[in-house]
């Protein structure tokens, strides 16, 4: 279980691999759509499967608050509750505690925070985060960590002194052997701290290593730099997971730098705002110029039988089907990109693929 | 085209038939879900098909205002615009002009009204209603009529003097021969007026007859009475369409009285409010008693793989998937009921079927 086999490698260092989970093999590199509250917004599980989704992420913070992780456990776990029978991943709740709760207080033992739903007070510790994730029952679970402001050296350095002991407490607390606990390398935008964090974690041989604390305000160039620093440090034979990343450009730049797993709410969030990915940018279907446009969003869109004019009408009329169709389009767009990159890796032409693809976007 | 063939008749007088349309045969009795703004709320066309939907209704008033019937025509008509390739029906816009517009003024020529979207002023006449419906291009289109308060004899009587000439103007205005224009019998809850209206319309041999002005405030017993009066009057060999009706009890009572076609927003409206049909009533999935209920909504629900607990969670969390799943459940519930009635008619046991089914509901 949780074996990671690299099946092809490209000259760039990008990898095509298979990660074995209790809910089936996961081919990498992979993009995971996010099902925050045990549902990838506006999509049915069977549609997700048809769109080629293989890994789905769900949020510990949200599910702990509602409906409660004990309830999810009693309903047979997250897979059974939301009827997703493929691989799943839960985060630790740490990131949301800091980004969603308007009141939170961190100490060396854990974090006390206020629910964004009803204002009630709660507390997460490494132990409780693992206990909640064991109740939820995803295949991949994440270490409880602090996500510090990436540019503040002293803050980030001190934060590692909290995150590293917390990682060991997570490891200690973990009881289920059908879940892979991934460590999360922190260290902001600083090479010495990133390397220190990675080396500390590698001493304990985790089944996977996440790269945390990125896509939170640093520049694209800084993100690429951190990935370049970590590439030679992290172990070859373990999957690498870049958390919260999901623009087409970031996915390509991540895969080029050896990343295997990504997740992001972007495809469903853009859909909620009427926006659709295309190669080179995003189009907002609310725009009046699509009013009489008979073309599909893109020629190979997952919803190519529907015209831009129809989707424009749905969005302008606040019809749910508009949200549904854009979600399907955007999720498929990113999954299709990952599929194309896997083929390019197998054919050892990822750099050419990336150069062509990125030429449609503004430079880094 | 538009031939109606009765393939089986039950001792109650209920009919099982086939109505031929340019988009395929329509087996009756049939329930049509409503796609107000060219979308049956929260459902994909392919899901509708899977749920067994055969006829879909859309609203002239809404589509005229947004996106505009000329746009729909230019996009290849409603079938192509919304990607529904089965039979479709549009209403005349008359009912919505009176029920949705806060300002409207009727005269012998037509109705002037204020858009509920932007307050702009518009005018419908029999001629413009037909022209709009020809732009939309449904298989069945409806005569432009007034829907009067059903209990006011003098009002209803005078209203017929408007509706009947309007019907002849609709007939005169109609140009397309691939659309069936249905007449709409009015007359409130009064036998003499209903019969007068039906006889007037039958002089002009329409391909179908609707029964309008019901389900607007009269009692269930009054509705049944009107259907009983009209049954021997309306021609046997033409489909009968009871407009705006869609509770399970009303569908059964309608079919028992010879009605062939029904439509209603109820399944999707209930879904929006968290409510689901079951045999005997409705359950509100918001209710806390479903919080840990592992059962499906009903054993043969269209979404039986999902638990009540999960749907409760989705509704409480305002997740669109809750709305999607309840819409699918409710639409399938009514379509399944129609399928069961068609079989019962063919096996000449509709009365027994109806007695058993209705025994789960309060008496009429």
Indicate the mean pLDDT of chain A.
97
Question: Which class best fits the helix and strand makeup of chain A?
Answer: alpha/beta
**CATH topology value of chain A:** TIM Barrel
For CATH, the homologous superfamily of chain A is named as Queuine tRNA-ribosyltransferase-like
Distance separating the two termini of chain A: 38 Å
Q: Would you list the SSEs of chain A in sequence order as H and E?
A: EEEEHEHHHEHEEEHEHEHEHEHEHEEHHH
Number of helices of chain A: 14
Overall CATH architecture of chain A: Alpha-Beta Barrel
Radius of gyration of chain A: 20 Å
| Inertia-based shape of chain A | globular
Binned strand content of chain A: 15-25%
Q: Most extensive interface, residues per chain?
A: A-B, 35 and 35 residues
Strands of chain A, total number: 16
Side-by-side strand order of the widest sheet of chain A:
4-14-13-12-11-10-6-5
- Fraction in helix of chain A: 40-55%
> How many structural domains are formed by the residues of chain A?
1
Overall CATH class of chain A: Alpha Beta
Largest sheet of chain A: 8 strands, parallel
**Uncertain stretches of chain A:** none
- Oligomeric state of shown chains: homodimer
Describe this structure in words.
2 copies of one chain form a homodimer. Chain A has one domain: TIM Barrel. The mean pLDDT of chain A is 97. In chain A, helix 11 (266-272) packs antiparallel against helix 13. Chain A contains 14 helices and 16 strands. An 8-stranded parallel β-sheet of chain A has the order 4-14-13-12-11-10-6-5. A 3-stranded antiparallel β-sheet of chain A has the order 1-2-3. In chain A, strands 7-8-9 form a 3-stranded antiparallel β-sheet. In chain A, 40% of the residues lie in helices and 18% in strands. Chain A binds chain B through residues 37-39, 41-44, 66-67, 71, 74-76, 81-83, 291-292, 294, 305-307, 309-310, 312-314, 316-317, 319-321, 323-325, and chain B through 37-39, 41-44, 66-67, 71, 74-76, 81-83, 291-292, 294, 305-307, 309-310, 312-314, 316-317, 319-321, 323-325.
């Amino acid at each position: 279980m949780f074996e990671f086999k690299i099946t092809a490698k490209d000259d760039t260092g990008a990898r095509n691999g298979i990660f074995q989970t209790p809910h089936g093999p996961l081919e990498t590199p992979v993009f995971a759509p996010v099902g925050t509250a045990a549902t990838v917004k506006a999509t049915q599980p069977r549609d997700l499967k048809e769109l080629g989704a293989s890994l789905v992420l769900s949020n510990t913070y949200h599910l702990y608050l509602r409906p409660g992780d004990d309830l999810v456990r009693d309903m047979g776990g997250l897979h059974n509750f939301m009827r997703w029978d493929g691989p799943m991943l839960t985060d630790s709740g740490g990131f949301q505690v800091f980004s969603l709760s308007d009141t939170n207080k961190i100490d060396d033992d854990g974090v006390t925070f206020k629910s964004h739903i009803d204002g009630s007070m709660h507390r997460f510790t490494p132990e409780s985060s693992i206990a909640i994730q064991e109740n939820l029952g995803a295949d991949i679970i994440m270490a409880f960590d602090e996500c510090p402001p990436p540019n503040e050296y002293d803050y980030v350095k001190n934060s590692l002194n909290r995150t590293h002991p917390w990682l060991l407490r997570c490891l200690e607390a973990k009881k289920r052997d059908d879940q892979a606990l991934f460590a999360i390398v922190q260290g902001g935008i600083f090479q010495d701290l990133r390397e220190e964090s990675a080396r500390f974690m590698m001493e304990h041989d985790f089944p996977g290593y996440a790269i945390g604390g990125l896509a939170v305000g640093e520049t694209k160039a800084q993100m690429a730099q951190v990935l370049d620093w970590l590439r030679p440090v992290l172990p070859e034979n373990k999957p690498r997971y870049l958390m919260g990343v999901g623009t087409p450009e970031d996915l390509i730049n991540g895969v080029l730098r050896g990343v295997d797993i990504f997740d992001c709410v972007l495809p469903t969030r853009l859909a909620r705002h009427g926006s659709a990915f295309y190669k080179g940018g995003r189009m907002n279907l609310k725009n009046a110029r699509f009013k009489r446009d008979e073309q599909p969003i893109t020629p190979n869109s997952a919803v190519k039988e529907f015209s831009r004019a129809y989707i424009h009408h749905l969005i302008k009329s606040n019809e749910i089907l508009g949200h549904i169709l854009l979600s399907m389009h955007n999720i498929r767009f990113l999954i299709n990109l990952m599929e194309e990159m896997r083929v390019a890796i197998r054919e050892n032409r990822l750099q050419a693929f990336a150069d062509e693809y990125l030429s449609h976007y503004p430079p880094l």
